[in-house]
Amino acid sequence: MHKLEILLAEEKIQAKVDELAGRINQDYAEKELLVVGILRGAFVFMADLVRKLDVSVIIDFVAVSSYGDETASSGVVRILKDLDETITGRHVLLVEDIIDTGLTLKYLYKNLKARRPASLKVCTLLDKPDRRKVDLVPDYNGFIIPDYFVVGYGLDCGQRFRNLPGIYVIDQGSGKETEGEEVKGEMIHG
Ligand SMILES: O=P(O)(O)OC[C@H]1O[C@H](OP(=O)(O)OP(=O)(O)O)[C@H](O)[C@@H]1O
Ligand code: HPA
């Protein structure tokens, strides 16, 4: 059992998704955008984001294996499900739920860049820069958060909690499951 403390309420997340979508709509006006979600965590954010885009949108997904201790140092990430679309000459937006060490995105960015898209940008809802192991700055960034392990809105702990509409800090060692109202930590908006 886990204790959950609210970090970002549903309304706050939705307002941020609106804001990010507004910027993307402006930046890609008159263009067609291939939005690529990184499974599984990005599925909720991506579903909300694309419904607020009014540019021409095509969606695709990529699934990667999470690196273990062995690969963490090398940054090698295995692609479990590659894109169905060809991206050469197209405008691609990679969508993540969270950037932590940055290893997943760094690898994917390099891999996709080699396929020569017309442009390649990164959009993340959450960014934990304190944990970064590689140099990576997202083009669109929802919230910069402290080094908490968070769940909800697509993010999991042991595959659970992805369905929660808000984002919570999880206490992985506690005995009781609650959903407190306290906002933990100072939020810095990206
Ligand atoms: O910046 P990093 O340290 O690479 O961490 C970020 C990645 O970790 C999580 O995925 P995870 O591997 O847990 O898989 P999931 O998306 O299926 O939850 C998250 O969704 C990112 O893809
Ligand atoms: O805080 C997190 N929560 C869930 N998955 C994650 N993957 C990297 N960081 C996190």
TrEMBL record:
E.C. numbers: 2.4.2.8
Gene3D superfamilies: 3.40.50.2020
Entry keyword Secreted: no
Alphabetically ordered keywords of this record: Cytoplasm, Glycosyltransferase, Magnesium, Metal-binding, Nucleotide-binding, Purine salvage, Transferase
Keyword Glycosyltransferase recorded: yes
Biological function: Purine salvage pathway enzyme that catalyzes the transfer of the ribosyl-5-phosphate group from 5-phospho-alpha-D-ribose 1-diphosphate (PRPP) to the N9 position of the 6-oxopurines hypoxanthine and guanine to form the corresponding ribonucleotides IMP (inosine 5'-monophosphate) and GMP (guanosine 5'-monophosphate), with the release of PPi.
Name of the protein in question: Hypoxanthine phosphoribosyltransferase
Taxonomic source organism: Syntrophaceticus schinkii
